[in-house]
Amino acid sequence: MIKKVSTLNYPKVFMDKVLLRHILLNLLTNALKYSGGHEPVKFRVLQIADQIQFIIEDSGIGIPNDEIPYIFEPFFRSSNSEGYKGTGLGMSIVKQCVDIHRGTVEIESILHKGTKISVTLPFEARF
Length: 127
Prior knowledge:
Strand order of the largest sheet: 1-2-3-5-4
CATH class: Alpha Beta
Low-confidence stretches: none
Shape: globular
Helix content: 10-25%
Mean pLDDT: 91
Number of domains: 1
CATH topology: Heat Shock Protein 90
Distance between the termini: 34 Å
Largest sheet: 5 strands, mixed
Order of helices and strands: EHEEHEE
């Protein structure tokens, strides 16, 4: 279950909708998968100056701190993800899509407590 935390009116944004779909679908799917469906996944959208920020937060298995630097590498899967289906490509795809938009992605995670991922993108993508 995805829990919407706030609803605000935001200005129009000019982004590649296919790339944005890849970003959000991968992040939300991971949050739901690794939280086991026991707790709602929080999804927030914020405006920060001329940028939009998507924050996805779960209460799942978390990512070991020493593995966070590798999470965007193609085919990398964290050591505690055994038993969960996946190819290790999702976060690599997210990073590539964010980079194309000239944005940033940040990960905060506590093992056995959950993960918070923040994606910040400019309102106007300049490819």
